[in-house]
Amino acid sequence: MHDFVDQINRLHRRVGTRQVAAGEARTVLMRRTYDAGIADVWDAVTSPERIGRWFLPVSGEFKVGGRYQLEGQAGGEILECVEPERLRVSWLMGPDPGFSEVEVRLTPDGEERTVFELEHVAVVPEEFWGQFGPGATGVGWDLMSLGLALHLAGGHMTQEESVAWQLSDEGKRCATLSGSAWGEAYAASGAEEKTVTATTAATIAFYTGTATP
After folding, report:
1. How far apart are CA 38 and CA 164, in angstroms?
2. Does residue 1 have a pLDDT over 60?
3. 35 and 154 in contact (C-beta within 8 Å)?
4. HEC-encoded secondary structure of 138-162
5. Could you tell me how far CA 160 lies from the centroid of its own chain?
6. pTM above 0.70, yes or no
7. How far is the C-alpha of 54 from the C-alpha of 122, rounded, in Å?
8. Which pLDDT band holds residue 18 (cuts at 50, 70, 90)?
9. CA distance linking residue 87 with residue 198, whole number of Å
10. How far apart are CA 209 and CA 195, in angstroms?
11. pLDDT per residue over 174-183, tens digit each?
């Protein structure tokens, strides 16, 4: 069985800002190493059939310029695809999604290990960022990384099992550790201590089911 708590603790996280055409964007970056070759990891994050096994069912036209839609989640356009190194997509939800992009970068670490980086760049409404900070997005990506780890190791959870796990004691502990770690990354980016404390608490409360946004 995977030690998901240990995996959460091993993740590297960074919070920053970037200027885009739409204005100042917030950035969250998550990095970890998988015990799988780069070709396998690339296939896992680009094959529609495999994405549906560890993340969510996805439909669309899977080529640069094509559009995709994750079931019940984000959709957008495939902006860049450089096999097996880089995939960049717009990541849009709701009627007025604004600017939001996700880029996955893979780097081989020997023949059977791969460094996985995911960076989410988005123009975020100030009231939302002020309430939750980077953790609202960051914790979600951390939990996603656990599903990918399980898949690459040959394991599997159904969507129902995944939801049940997130509500379990282990799932809530992982969300709490992840939320705290994103708070530390937020502090390292220069955020004020009281802001970090408040946003971290709000994020953890949301992901552990003790509050809703």
Report:
1. 30
2. no
3. no
4. HHHHHHHHHHHHHHHCCCCCCHHHH
5. 20
6. yes
7. 24
8. very high
9. 34
10. 21
11. 999 999 999 9
Which residues are registered as beta bridge partners of 67?
77
Task: Classify the phi-psi angles of 4: left when phi > 0, otherwise alpha if psi is within -120 to 50, otherwise beta.
Answer: alpha
pLDDT score of 95 more than 90: no
d(CA 24, CA 64): 26
Structure tokens, 68: 């995709």
b/e burial code for range 102-124 (CB count within 10 A of at least 16 → b): bbbbbeeeeeeebbbbbbbbbbb
- Cα angle: 26, vertex 88, 69; to 5 degrees: 95
Place of tokens 């604004």: 98
Question: CA–CA separation, 107 vs 43, rounded Å?
Answer: 14
Q: How far apart are CA 142 and CA 42, in angstroms?
A: 18
d(CA 136, CA 179): 8
- Residues listed for the chain: 213
Task: Outline where 37-152 has alpha helix (H).
Answer: 38-46, 48-54, 126-132, 135-152
> What are the Cα distances from residue 16, in Å, to 38, 121, 189, 191, 202?
27, 9, 6, 10, 20
Separation of alpha carbons 179 and 186, rounded Å: 10
Sign (positive or negative) of CA dihedral 130, 131, 137, 138: positive
